[in-house]
């Protein structure tokens, strides 16, 4: 059994705490079940299933912490693990940044959409059937498919001797598909990540990837330079996540962040981006539910990060918050960027000259001072003229900062759920039209 | 463990954005628990046989079993404090079967007889289900069984046996030295890995291996509050397939006379930290580069990553064939180029070998994760593409009747697949030192250390940065540069290779976190080279204003 109910988890964790003789003791308990199929060259390459649980026991004496893990839950195993963590704590070096464990917290109930049992319990046959639909698209379109389907059910729980208790169950299904023309001249991609496998349409996504593959064959080379671009959500998210993932108070306060100011201080409260940029996170939003508690045991609440282009909040670890005399703020979870009502097609129609970018890939930081990133377009890049897609273009390397990009904002479309191909985290992001996006060289890759 | 999880653990990553993600590195255990010798070989053989027999009883035509105990230790400090001491252990079993011509895999961390048998049945059930949509049956290259054999990384000093206090003392001294030399912030880490891997297959192999790796590193940052600018200088160490001896300095392993000290098979972490502390300030004052064409002189601490991305990945046969099309990508080194026997990958100076046995390297093992004995072979010979890297179920595609031993899984819970062996550029045959190389350069940049890296999905277009850039004018280093990145095309770049220093300058670089596959797996791999010259490479200026 890898998915423990709240009552089962609570009982075992209480048992573990009952053995504790340390100043403080905390139990983290989690487990998952799941399976996957990977396919390529129109055939299954690997597939498997894995199920596991683990209980982590942390005991503290003063600022000294000892940690032990186990995956056998009889009384004797648990008691000996608790004793062991206490011995280790006595031997550990003191951590001056150690924070006392949290007391009871009020966690909001998670969205009921966070967990779907059937998604965790999918059978090999269900997975194979979903992949068979994708392979059929490849066969019908004379394309070569490579894809990946993975499902998982999981539970996560936390309890400590100060009275904190947190528990949730979550499920996840992830699918990505690359279709290529048999001559290798065209390539298209689609991906999604959901909590409920009923939301995952492998057929439709495979058709989208197939269409992009056929449409991207025979790409023409354009000169690198500054272009107006439309970034589909899958392309935009890989740059945006480095912006909202970089809103860390400590590095900004320490002077080593794009949010640090000349002469000291941070850009918190300053307008850094176009006023149409609004980014917040909300774990309870049913469009993208996440856990209502953080790994530190803090409530994850709805919070605005960027409002009308102004840096509204930074995240603070418990240690840094105490040092600065502010409330600790966990990092963004369940990120939503507001947009408008325009569809991707509307954005294309309103573009005189530009480039449609469907995916960005191999994103790496170049300069943390300016949040400059490099990477490439991939799997379908198209030239737009007079509101229409004219022809596919060869891929580009870009060097661009999300800060500069969000100052060069032309228009936002309707947000949709997407999953980052870099961090594998989901977000709700609009398609974005950006002017003067910097492409610095051409790539021959398809 | 993924690269980003490591960054998180060391506090260098996304900060709070990652807090909701528990690093997927196994579960924490005690330092002492990590020392217990592991599971008895006889017990492992008994457990493996249960899995082999269970899979056979359900109709598997081939089965292999990997029982893994993966130990990791991180000691993380910043400035004058210990931030994190983490020991993790991950223990379990992965069972891979062939049934009805298709692969199936299941993994369990419950190691009782029933759980093992259940996992084996599950693997067979998955294989049979997937066989429905399989277009052609798996063809395995023949492999003889080796009986009961073992292999161990030849280490001098087991890092797990060194008291935590010694590591903490070393790192705090490193931090103090860097800060006295000018750094404002420093995070330093010692990262140890011990993979205790047991492999058994229906071919009759029972292989017990004990693999060790170490990576000492730091990130030192200098801030100029007046301008609001900051610069970081990372350690010039390499992760190695060695024991704790790697961090015990030895004078004969130092390369002197260059703008900073460089290290062969022993690393002086304190000395390097002192240099880094001072160089952070120099980087802040360095001249911003004028973009254009320059001759590059690349130190092995920079070139290893370019070799990794532009030679290592495109010569992976599974990428060439399309198995990675949905994630890491495919390759420009298509089969027709190899078959022609004339594909001009690089200049005549370029000789690149794959080597799974190289002492001190991250990829060195006796046998791969499908029971194939490891070896060494040419990939690029005198500039021509001559071979790939492959495994048992793909060897037949390039006409081989045996695997090259490139199969690896990063955990018992992940299925093994083709991973890169150590891929290295051979040193030049004519005596040449880096100083002599620089003397012949009119307009160039000498680059030390690795930094930003990015390459396309077929491995044509790349962009790399470094830690230290020195401007070379008329044979002399004239000062430090900043805001430098080199952009090129793989084939053009390797054809611009005009000189390679000799064996005396040969050193290993490498990565603990080479990512590939879905779900993503990491592997550790080394890349050796001597200092190498490339003519007329495009340099861009990366400075921006926000």
How are the secondary structure elements laid out?
The complex is a heterodimer of chains A (446) and B (546).
Chain A: H1 6-18, E1 24-40, E2 43-61, E3 64-70, H2 75-91, H3 117-120, H4 124-140, E4 143-160, E5 165-181, E6 187-194, H5 202-216, E7 225-231, H6 233-244, H7 249-253, E8 279-281, E9 303-307, E10 310-311, H8 318-324, E11 335-337, H9 344-349, E12 353-357, E13 360-367, E14 372-377, E15 381-385, E16 388-392, E17 396-400, H10 402-405, E18 409-412, E19 416-419, E20 426-429, E21 432-442
Parallel strand pairs in A: 7-12, 11-20
Antiparallel strand pairs in A: 1-2, 1-4, 2-3, 4-5, 5-6, 7-21, 8-9, 8-11, 9-10, 12-15, 13-14, 14-17, 15-16, 17-21, 18-21, 19-20
Chain B: H1 3-9, E1 27-28, H2 41-57, E2 62-78, E3 81-99, E4 102-108, H3 113-131, E5 147-152, H4 164-180, E6 185-201, E7 205-224, E8 229-234, E9 254-255, E10 262-263, H5 269-285, E11 287-288, E12 292-298, H6 300-312, H7 317-321, H8 335-340, E13 352-355, E14 376-381, E15 384-385, E16 407-408, E17 417-418, E18 422-425, H9 434-439, E19 443-448, E20 453-455, E21 461-464, E22 468-473, E23 476-482, E24 484-489, H10 490-495, E25 497-500, E26 507-516, E27 521-529, E28 532-541
Parallel strand pairs in B: 5-7, 11-23, 12-19
Antiparallel strand pairs in B: 1-3, 2-3, 2-6, 3-4, 6-7, 7-8, 9-10, 12-28, 13-14, 13-18, 14-15, 16-17, 19-22, 20-21, 21-24, 22-23, 24-28, 25-28, 26-27
How much of the sequence of chain A is in beta strands?
A: 35-45%
> Count of DSSP E strands of chain B?
28
Per CATH, the class of the largest domain in chain B reads Alpha Beta
Shape by Cα distribution of chain B: globular
Helix coverage percent of residues of chain B?
10-25%
Class of secondary structure makeup of chain B: alpha+beta
Give the helix/strand class of chain A. alpha+beta
Rg calc of chain B:
24 Å
Distance between the termini of chain B: 34 Å
Q: Alpha-carbon distance between the termini of chain A?
A: 45 Å
Uncertain parts of chain A: none
Mean of residue pLDDT values of chain B: 93
Please identify the oligomeric state: heterodimer
Largest interface: A-B, 120 and 102 residues
Low-confidence stretches of chain B are 11-26
Extended strand count of chain A: 21
The helix count of chain A comes to 10
